């Protein structure tokens, strides 16, 4: 694809851009980072991105998605923040565990080094040893990816205790290489409804807070519901000590994929490269632009119901827990000029009132995404049965696949009391079970980073729908789960009509199931959503949205 280029420019020092937040969280630092990465890549540079999360968890694997949003999984198995998914989707690349760090992981490795006598008898201190470790990791990420430009997003906002050591690391790196480091402040400009005017003061404060950490922003990305006018650009310029030309207006947009294009209206890549003293090639965003045109012109709606449980937080509905699923649906839909309308359905609704499940008939397709634990499981089973019997396209992702096997075992293969051992460890028929090795983790409560994680090979059976969609005999997909289809029941399930469409031959594990005489019924033990790209939608999602379109 044309936006992926390796650098042929004369090698200069590696460059680093730190992206720091101001005013409040959730203003789009991740999308700003991803978009800057893409536009710099489109000028012919190798770009990589690093995410720093200030929490003490060693990785994102042990957090509730309601708390933190989706846990993204890298090819090498690291469980990390959803922003890493955005970086991969925008850059169309595979990142590695060195591209991600948390306060917990940084301290953990410093302590491990101390235990291994790696500090030569010195007193190990927060400063400089923690910033040194952070800087080493950033440099390692740069060298691992041979990056001309490394963009580092520091989580949280300026002025918090939690990210101070990371800001300190950035300050020290700048001191070491003043020419090669830029700071971008992504801040928010509110328009209070009673005042009706865009206010710059919170951003002025954010810039000062950054100053108090010894850092001067080189550029401000001004997020707001509306574009920034010249008066406010001037004001921010004077008060925050940046040139007005370096205040970038970043109004809300309908789709995150338009952000890079908007940035380029402001010539952001040229400005950044000039500051970094790098000579750019001609911009090449052709394919990306044509993808955004497809978004703009998609007009045929398909209605998809996502049945899950991580939606409600107080009075708000959160879809962050399933961000990669949503993006994968969008990639596949937009590429076919379809406009997906997604409804969130709490599966526990079907548990008390079984009539409610018939409400699913309004959907062109149903997805049950990954999940854990008991809440809402019986409701999900009802939804799966409904989709199977009423021939509504169904895509089950991980838990959604495991539960499809439970449903089939109970209602078609008539295996009494069939269940997953995750919910009922004493079930007489654990069609989904824990495998050898994982049982020890549960016993010993070794829960962090101990699931089946990251990329595994999967052989696709010939003459299946899955094979037709992938159009290849072997794929590599990303996993995050502890339980598996129990091979003891494989024959019985196959006899009852369940098709085993994909297996991992090395470990003899079922990876994909499908049903014949159904327009589309596929379940995957892995998470195909994690590797879907805007310009290269995942084949199973493509097949799914096509089936949705047909079922309309
Ligand atoms: N809870 C299931 C397991 O651990 C499925 C996990 C998931 O959906 N990611 O195997």
Explain what the structure shows.
With 552 residues, the protein is α/β, with parallel strands linked by helices. The protein folds into 2 domains: 15-290, Rossmann fold (3-Layer(aba) Sandwich); 298-551, Rossmann fold (3-Layer(aba) Sandwich). The protein has a 9-stranded mixed sheet, sandwiched between helices. β11 (312-313) and β12 (316-317) form a beta hairpin. The two termini are 33 Å apart. The model has no long low-confidence stretch (mean pLDDT 94). Glutamine is lined by residues 370-372, 398-399, 402, 422, 480-483.
Give helix % range. Answer: 25-40%
**CATH class category of the largest domain:** Alpha Beta
CATH fold field value of the largest domain = Rossmann fold
Total number of domains: 2
Which small molecules are bound?
A: glutamine
Please provide the count of β strands: 23
Low-pLDDT windows of residues: none
- Overall pLDDT confidence: 94
Largest sheet: 9 strands, mixed
In the CATH hierarchy, what is the architecture of the largest domain at level 2? 3-Layer(aba) Sandwich
- Head-to-tail CA distance between termini: 33 Å
Give the overall shape, derived from the CA principal axes.
globular
Strand pairing plus helix content: what structural class? alpha/beta
Radius of gyration: 25 Å
CATH superfamily of the largest domain: P-loop containing nucleotide triphosphate hydrolases
Separate helix tally: 19
How much strand content do the residues show?
A: 15-25%
């Amino acid at each position: 694809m044309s936006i992926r280029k390796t650098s042929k420019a004369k090698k200069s020092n590696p460059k680093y851009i730190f992206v720091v937040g101001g005013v409040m969280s959730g203003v789009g630092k991740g999308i700003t980072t991803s978009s800057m990465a893409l536009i710099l890549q489109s000028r012919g540079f190798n770009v990589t991105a690093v995410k720093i999360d200030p929490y003490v968890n060693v990785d994102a694997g042990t957090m509730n998605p309601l708390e933190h949003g989706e846990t993204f999984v890298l090819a090498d198995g690291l469980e990390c923040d959803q922003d890493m998914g955005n970086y991969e989707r925008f850059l169309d690349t595979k990142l590695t565990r060195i591209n991600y760090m948390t306060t917990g992981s940084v301290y953990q490795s410093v302590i491990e080094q101390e235990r291994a006598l790696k500090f030569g008898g010195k007193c190990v201190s927060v400063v400089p040893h923690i910033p040194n470790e952070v800087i080493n990791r950033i440099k390692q990420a740069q060298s691992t990816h041979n990056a001309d430009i490394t963009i580092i997003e520091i989580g949280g906002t300026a002025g918090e205790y939690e990210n101070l050591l990371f800001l300190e690391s950035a300050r020290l790196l700048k001191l070491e290489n003043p020419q090669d480091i830029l700071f971008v402040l992504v801040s928010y400009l509110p328009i209070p409804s009673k005042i009706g005017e865009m206010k710059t003061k919170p951003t002025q404060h954010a810039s000062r807070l950054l100053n108090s950490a010894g850092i001067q922003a080189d550029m401000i990305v001004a997020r707001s519901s509306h574009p920034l006018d010249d008066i406010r650009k001037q004001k921010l310029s004077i008060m925050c000590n940046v040139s007005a030309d370096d205040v970038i207006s970043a109004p809300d947009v309908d789709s995150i994929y338009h952000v890079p294009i908007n940035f380029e209206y402001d010539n952001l890549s040229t400005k950044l490269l000039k500051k970094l003293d790098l000579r750019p090639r001609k911009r090449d965003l052709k394919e990306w632009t044509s993808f955004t045109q497809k978004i703009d012109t998609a007009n045929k709606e398909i209605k998809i119901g996502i049945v899950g449980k991580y939606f409600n937080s107080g009075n708000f509905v959160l879809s962050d827990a399933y961000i990669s699923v949503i993006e994968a649906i969008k990639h596949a839909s937009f590429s076919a000029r379809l406009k997906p309308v997604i409804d969130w359905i709490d599966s526990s609704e079907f548990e008390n009132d079984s009539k409610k499940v018939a409400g699913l008939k309004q959907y062109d397709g149903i997805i049950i995404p990954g999940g854990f634990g008991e809440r809402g499981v019986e409701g999900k089973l009802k939804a799966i049965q409904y989709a199977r019997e009423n021939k509504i396209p169904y895509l089950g992702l991980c838990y959604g696949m495991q539960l499809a096997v439970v449903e089939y075992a109970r209602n078609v293969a008539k295996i009494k009391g069939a269940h997953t051992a995750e919910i009922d460890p004493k079930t007489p028929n654990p069609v989904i079970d824990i495998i050898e090795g994982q049982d020890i983790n549960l016993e010993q409560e070794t829960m962090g980073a101990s699931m089946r994680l990251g990329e595994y090979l999967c052989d696709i059976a010939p003459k299946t729908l899955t094979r037709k969609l992938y159009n290849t005999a072997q794929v590599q997909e990303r996993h995050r789960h502890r339980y598996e289809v129990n091979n003891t029941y494989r024959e019985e399930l196959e006899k009852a009509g369940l098709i085993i469409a994909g297996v991992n031959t090395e470990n003899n594990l079922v990876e994909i199931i499908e049903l014949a005489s159904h327009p589309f019924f596929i379940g995957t033990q892995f998470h195909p959503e994690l590797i879907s790209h805007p310009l290269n939608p995942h084949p199973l999602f493509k097949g799914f949205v096509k089936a949705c379109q047909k079922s309309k």
